[in-house]
Specification:
The two termini are 21 Å apart. Helix content is 38%, strand content 13%. It has a five-stranded mixed beta sheet with strand order 1-5-2-4-3. It is α/β, with parallel strands linked by helices and 166 residues long. Helix 1 crosses helix 2.
């Protein structure tokens, strides 16, 4: 959407942007979760492009890589990141130190940790710990887009679904 803003793909993402903006008119509807039924269906592509479009349109956006088993967005956007979401779950007040900013779009990004950066098994997403992070950052952003794993192989989406507005 950034490189080819008039492409058919960008128009599809623009439709999602409009849906998100219209949903927000009804109240607190700003935490968007992106998932799919199975892995490798393009959810990370949609999450990153939706986040980018919202950001270049003037909204303050945080994109969170919430895929501990396959952190594609982290590998693409911040391959040098050593710490991220899992560390922030352990200490939500440190989340600001872990957020990366894309200066070309003004998109903020919270990467996923490298597997060795935390003392518990990577891949365990806790609802209460995720809620702590969202509580810390929620008022700073117009939208928080959470790139979630697929629904069928893991329980992570179920663990945080009550925290997602749409």
């Amino acid at each position: 959407v950034v490189d080819e803003p008039f492409s058919p793909f960008a128009e599809t993402i623009r439709s999602l942007q409009i849906a998100a903006e219209l949903a927000e008119l009804g109240g607190r509807k700003k935490i968007l979760g992106v998932t799919s039924a199975r892995p490798r269906e393009g959810k990370s592509l949609v999450a990153s492009n939706l986040s980018g479009m919202l950001a270049i349109s003037g909204s303050k956006v945080l994109l969170i890589d919430c895929q501990p088993r396959n952190p594609e967005l982290t590998q693409q956007l911040t391959p040098k990141a050593k710490a991220g979401l899992m560390r922030a779950m352990a200490n939500p007040d440190a989340v600001d130190e872990l957020i990366w900013r894309d200066e070309s779009t003004n998109l903020d990004f919270l990467p996923m940790d490298a597997p060795t950066s935390v003392g518990r098994p990577i891949g365990v997403v806790s609802a209460s710990m995720m809620q702590g992070i969202l509580t810390v950052v929620q008022d700073r952003y117009d939208y928080i887009v959470v790139d979630l794993p697929a629904l069928t192989p893991v329980a992570d989406v179920k663990a945080v679904s009550n925290l997602i507005d749409h």
